[in-house]
Design brief:
By secondary structure, the protein is an alpha/beta fold. Helix content is 25%, strand content 27%. 48% of the residues are buried.
């Protein structure tokens, strides 16, 4: 079995990996497609080694968190041959940059019939994180105004659609090459951040969702209504802002989705099946060409996910 292994802070393919053991409540999945994410590169560089050690994660493959594939062993909720997609536990699970992975059944859902493996792999992390941010951390209505920073990436393309599904007015902040693309996903307004930097914007919003992982509360405060909510995608940069929530009406909400959720993924899959949400794949590469996939991921101007296919 082959997979990606971090050696000297670099990812390399190993072809003699052991088949994963299947634990209680898990199924073995033959991975058909997976994705490249920033956290994969951070795991490879050792940024989270201490956290993995504390979580007692001794798995050989430490990169790859979302995937699609075929169930290879019967479980309780899923049977051999089921087409599934999901999102493994960030710290405690085996990872998906390998041909087979053992996955907790609570982290996966069945792929809609109208979706390919590659597009299914591009769905779980971005859609589930956006779902939690915009359905659980805030209560959107038809009067809500939402600003999404980093709207063309692997999370933003779903955040736009989920916010629109809730009836909100959505403004997307992105580069100039994505204006029509994000309009096609449902964004009411699309702003080119080169021509209109964040600090120059005059409108105010009920929710500012930062999927670029670059903004602090003080940089978006002027964009929030008096009781507005700021949701950063990387909460560990915002400890002071969480503390200050006790002293102000404007709040910073804690967004952390560290694993799949079968029920929520099934709901998202149903939306996809009904045509209410469309998936977005920027580019696809064969697994052996993972270096090109990483290079594409590091380029600006992506639209959605960079996908690795095993065949």
């Amino acid at each position: 079995m082959k997979g990606l292994v971090a050696e000297n802070r670099q990812l390399v393919i190993k072809r003699d990996l052991n088949m994963p053991l299947v634990g209680e409540g898990e199924v073995l999945v033959q991975v058909k497609s997976t994705t490249i994410n920033l956290i994969d590169l951070e795991f490879a560089k050792g940024k989270y080694d201490l956290f993995l050690k504390l979580a007692r994660n001794n798995y050989t493959v430490k990169t790859g968190i979302e995937f699609s594939g075929l169930v290879a062993t019967d479980g309780h909720a899923f049977k051999k041959g089921d087409r599934v997609f999901g999102y493994v536990n960030l710290l405690k699970s085996d990872k998906t940059h390998q041909e087979f992975v053992s996955v907790n059944e609570q982290y996966i859902a069945k792929i809609p019939a109208n979706l390919s493996f590659s597009h299914a792999a591009a769905l779980p992390l971005g859609a589930l994180t956006s779902y939690v941010a915009l359905n659980e951390l805030v209560n959107l209505t038809s009067d809500s105004k939402v600003l999404i920073i980093g709207a063309s990436g692997g999370l933003g393309v779903y955040a736009i659609q989920i916010a629109k599904r809730a009836g909100a007015h959505v403004t997307a902040l992105t580069g100039e090459n994505h204006l029509q693309f994000l309009k096609s996903l449902g964004a009411d307004d699309v702003i080119d951040y080169h021509a209109n930097p964040l600090e120059s914007l005059k409108s105010t919003y009920d929710v500012v969702l930062d999927l670029s992982n670059t903004k602090l509360y003080k940089q978006v405060k002027h964009l929030l209504v008096s009781d507005g909510v700021f949701i950063p995608a990387e909460p560990n940069k915002h400890f002071l802002s969480f503390v200050m929530n006790a002293f102000r009406k404007r709040k910073t909400k804690y967004l952390y989705v560290d694993k799949g959720d079968s029920a929520k993924l099934a709901q998202i899959a149903n939306w996809v099946a009904q045509g209410e949400i469309q998936t977005s794949v920027d580019s696809e590469f064969l697994f052996e060409d993972y270096q090109s996939a990483i290079s594409r991921f590091l380029q600006k101007g992506r639209r959605g996910r960079v996908v690795l296919n095993f065949e």
